[in-house]
Each structure stands twice: as C-alpha cells, then as structure tokens.
Design a protein that fits this description.
The protein is α+β, with helices and mostly antiparallel strands. The chain has three helices and four strands. The longest helix has about 35 residues.
Amino acid sequence: MGVFDAINVSASGLTAERLRMDIIADNIANANVTRTASGGPYRRKEVIFTEKQNFASLLDKQVKVNSPSGVEVGKIVEDPSPFKLVYQPGHPDARADGYVEYPNVDVALEMVDLISASRAYEANMTVINDTKNILLKTLDLAR
C-alpha cells in the first residue's frame, strides 16, 4: 500500500461523483422535453459505478494482496421506466387520444440523488484533505 493510495482512491471518487452530478443536472434540465432528436420524450439516465480496474489492481488480486483501487463509471444507462402521461389535447406532441408523453424524470428524486452525490463528493474531499494533513504532520515529525 502506497503513501498516496488514499488520495488516488478519493480522486477517482471525485471524478465519478462529478460525472454523476453532471448526469443528474442533464436529467433535471430535460425534465419537460417531449421531443428529442431520436424521437419521443427524453429518457432519464443513470450512472453505474464499478470498481476501478487497472493492471496494478488486477495483479494485486492475482497475488491476493488487498490494495485499494478506487471507483470508475462503468456505464451510463437509460431508465426503462414508463413515461408520464398527461392529458393535453392541444399540445403539438399529443397522441391521437390527447395524451402527451413526458420524460420519466422525477425532479424531487433527482434532487435527492444530487444531494447524495454532493455529500459523497464532500466526503472524498475530506479524505484527501485529512490524508494531506497526516502526511504533512509525518514530515514534521521527521524534522
């Protein structure tokens, strides 16, 4: 285990959580989009995190060393839940029965996810700052 492993793991968490916040912001911005370039309403996106895989972490697993590897965004998937139907017969995107399909984005749920991502980001920043302080105090002891 190296001196900077905690910082590297937390840095990977910062990167992943920043992307998660970007996707949440995209979902909120498109919460009322009824027509996209591909046709149909906007579909909510979700971020899937996976354990970071690099050569060093794969080698450590083969040697059965438990060293931290961090996190990365495995993929971004579309939420398959159904669209919201709202009766608006005068809307340009209304179906023949008068219903308009709105995105499957729940703004309240997105705000909860945003708070969660923000707290995880703050926690990773705290780990980086605390690790930095520990390293600085270790250097002071060596003097």
